[in-house]
Design brief:
- Keywords: Flavoprotein, FMN, Monooxygenase, Oxidoreductase.
- One of its GO terms (molecular function) is alkanesulfonate monooxygenase activity.
- Its EC number is 1.14.14.5.
- InterPro entries: Diverse_substr_monoxygenases, Luciferase-like_dom, Luciferase-like_sf, NTA_MOA.
- By secondary structure, this protein is α/β, with parallel strands linked by helices.
- It has one domain (about 5-445): Luciferase-like domain (TIM Barrel).
- α4 packs across α6, α6 runs parallel beside α7 (about 230-240) and α7 (about 230-240) packs across α8.
- Strands 1-2-3-4-9-10-11-13 form an eight-stranded parallel barrel, surrounded by six helices. It has a two-stranded antiparallel sheet with strand order 5-6. Strands 7-8 form a two-stranded antiparallel sheet.
- β1, α1 (about 35-50) and β2 (about 55) form a beta-alpha-beta unit.
- The radius of gyration is 22 Å and the shape is globular.
- The mean pLDDT is about 95.
- The chain is built from 15 helices and 13 strands.
- The structure holds flavin mononucleotide (FMN).
Length: about 450
């Protein structure tokens, strides 16, 4: 039995997400992002294709690095306007039974106490289908929105994140015992007080409080992480159950997969058991020729300046100041680091000009584009899985809804025919579907805070 391939859909509560300019395509409906029917239809399309999850990205700031202001981002709808991702989840959960929801929340701007309750609430309401993509941000504009002058330095953000994680684990795992709630109507006893305990935490964050939610199906949401700098890898090795990465080639992605698995093993975790997803866009049509035509059609609407606006935000480099034919050089700053590594140092055999970056990133971001018939795309996916060690893909879209509909209706049957894809969902929580258990593994950093 070949290794199964897993799929997540990569989305965001905004227009166009990773394919700036494609909102102008006549069939694109991503401008309907602010209406629930749009999201419910997406969730049902993904569930039809047995996707493991919908991964909702988020930023709390504006991409104002390109050109030194917000104009380009606003004009091109470059991840702005952007609404809250969490509020979409209950409606989509109601319209589906199995689809998981990996929601991004930036811990730099969310006090841990109310955040922990919000995630517990979502875990209850989805009956255990919630995951958290732990991010620390890369935009100074987000820090300014929170009343700070600039964002915290790169590695310090991960240090703060360590303390944040310990605190929320204590709330999720350690405040209420599984048998605390008895809801005994005859005795008039809802919760046994001796089975609920205060969490006292002294670190970067301070807290002395009970968690407010009773234990939810998974307690700690499934933890996703998406940074692959040295500090990011260490954080992933300690906390991630699923890792999202992005890179344009197998050469870039494979060593990151191996490094995180090895680091995790060094911490006593099962490195091979961490699920690795890499960003990709699949343009699938009944034949190779039809798929190539579709991609050519999409390219007519792609917006390289919008793409460079995204890249400027991810990397902290103002690409508007560079010559289009200039080769992008590496610099170290306080924004995210993997996005720049992807095009400078991660593949010594490939140098990128600014123009090439703008063109590549304008459809689906920095990941590969798989284009062709279901057979061709399945071949490409299989070779990525074999040669990089990943477990699956985080699929971006070019045009909504058709990119995801083609995956569910054309590609998934081909993957199933090859024995590479499940034919039905497993029952139970998101963690049970992915790992066969509802609660974090005993070797996970959250487990030592359990109330036993
Ligand atoms: C596939 C993928 C998805 C990401 N989604 C988000 C997101 O939604 N919000 C966010 O603030 N950062 C997001 N990031 C950025 C990471 O959280 C991180 O800040 C970035 O990769 C830089 O981390 P590093 O410097 O450790 O590599 C994403 C990264 C990747 C690779």
């Amino acid at each position: 039995m070949p290794k199964p391939i897993r799929l997540n859909a990569f989305e965001m509560n905004c227009v166009a997400h990773q394919s700036p300019g494609l909102w102008r395509h006549p069939r694109d409906r991503s401008h309907e992002y602010n209406r629930l029917p749009y999201w419910i239809e997406l969730a049902q399309t993904l569930e039809r294709g047995l996707f493991d999850g919908l991964f909702l990205a988020d930023v709390l700031g504006i991409y104002d690095v390109f050109g030194g202001g917000p104009e380009a981002a606003l004009r091109h709808a470059t991840q702005v306007p952007v609404n809250d991702p969490l509020l979409l989840v209950p409606a989509m959960a109601q319209a589906t039974r199995h689809l998981g929801f990996g929601v991004t929340v930036n811990l730099s701007f969310e006090p841990p106490y109310p955040f922990a309750r919000r995630m517990s609430t979502l875990d209850h309401l989805t009956e255990g289908r919630i995951g958290w993509n732990v991010v620390t941000g890369y935009l100074d504009s987000a820090a300014k929105g929170a009343g700070r002058d600039r964002q915290t330095a790169h590695d310090d953000r991960y240090a703060v994140a360590e303390d944040y994680m310990e605190l929320v684990y204590k709330l999720w795992e350690g405040s209420w015992a599984d048998d605390a709630v008895v809801a005994d109507k005859a005795a008039g006893l809802f919760t046994r007080p001796e089975r609920v305990r205060r969490v006292a935490h002294e670190g970067h964050f301070r807290l002395d409080a009970l968690h407010l939610s009773e234990p939810s199906p998974q307690r700690t949401p499934v933890i996703y992480q998406a940074g692959t700098s040295p500090a990011g890898r260490t954080f992933a090795a300690r906390h991630a159950e699923c890792v999202f990465m992005s890179g344009p080639s197998k050469t870039v992605v494979a060593p990151r997969v191996a490094a995180i698995r090895e680091l995790a093993a060094g911490l006593g975790r099962d490195g091979a058991g961490i699920l690795m997803f890499t960003l990709a866009t699949a343009i699938v049509a009944p034949t190779d020729a039809a798929a190539a035509d579709l991609l050519a059609e999409y390219r007519r609407y792609a917006d390289p300046e919008g793409a460079l606006t995204l890249m400027s935000g991810w990397t902290g480099i103002d690409f508007s100041r560079l010559d289009p034919d200039e080769v992008v050089e590496h610099v170290q700053n306080e924004a995210g680091r993997s996005a720049l590594e992807n095009i400078t140092r991660a593949d010594p055999g490939r140098r990128w000009t600014v123009r090439e970056v703008g063109e590549h990133v304008s459809i689906g971001g920095i990941g590969p584009i798989f284009v062709g018939s279901p057979t061709t795309v399945a071949d490409q996916m299989e070779s990525w899985v074999e040669e990089t060690g990943i477990d699956g893909f985080n699929l971006a879209f070019a045009v909504r809804p058709e990119t995801f509909a083609a995956v569910s209706d054309l590609l998934v049957p081909e993957l199933q025919r090859r024995g590479r894809y499940k034919s039905a969902y497993a029952e139970g929580s998101l963690r049970r579907k992915l790992f066969g258990r509802d609660r974090v593994d005993d070797s996970h950093a959250a487990a030592r805070h359990r109330f036993v």
